[in-house]
Write a structure and sequence with these properties.
The protein has 110 residues and is an alpha+beta fold. The protein contains 4 helices and 2 strands. The chain has one domain. 54% of the residues lie in helices and 13% in strands. Strand 1 and strand 2 form a beta hairpin. Helix 2 runs antiparallel to helix 4. The protein is extended, with a radius of gyration of 19 Å.
Length: 110
């Protein structure tokens, strides 16, 4: 994103919401997002990345829920299955997001 803006081919950040204009820098940015998501999924499934994420987990995932009975707090356990689930969803989510961005007509600010 920054490179396209710095060289002047993309006037501002809002142009990245309009891939239908076929700007090469915008399309390259979208392709980079998809390749990174696919690369992460490949690493998780085929190169033992899920095990490494679980072993080297830098922090605990905490959640808070408020309801009629007060506040409940818990810790979400990060398992290899959850890491693989999110790694599998990643490329699908990015592809769906790219399709959504491409199908809408975002106005450009003046």
């Amino acid at each position: 994103m920054g490179w396209g803006i710095l060289v002047g081919s993309v006037p501002n950040i809002w142009y990245f919401l309009r891939p239908q204009d076929r700007n090469a820098y915008v399309l390259t940015w979208f392709a980079t997002l998809f390749v990174l998501a696919f690369g992460f999924a490949f690493w998780v499934f085929f190169l033992g990345g899920a095990e490494k994420v679980v072993v080297l987990q830098p922090f605990e995932l905490k959640w808070h829920r408020r309801g009629f009975r007060g506040t409940m707090t818990g810790i979400v356990e990060l398992t290899e299955g959850r890491v693989k689930l999110f790694a599998a969803i990643g490329p699908i989510w990015i592809a769906a997001w790219i399709w959504l961005i491409s199908s809408m007509d975002a106005p450009l600010p003046k």
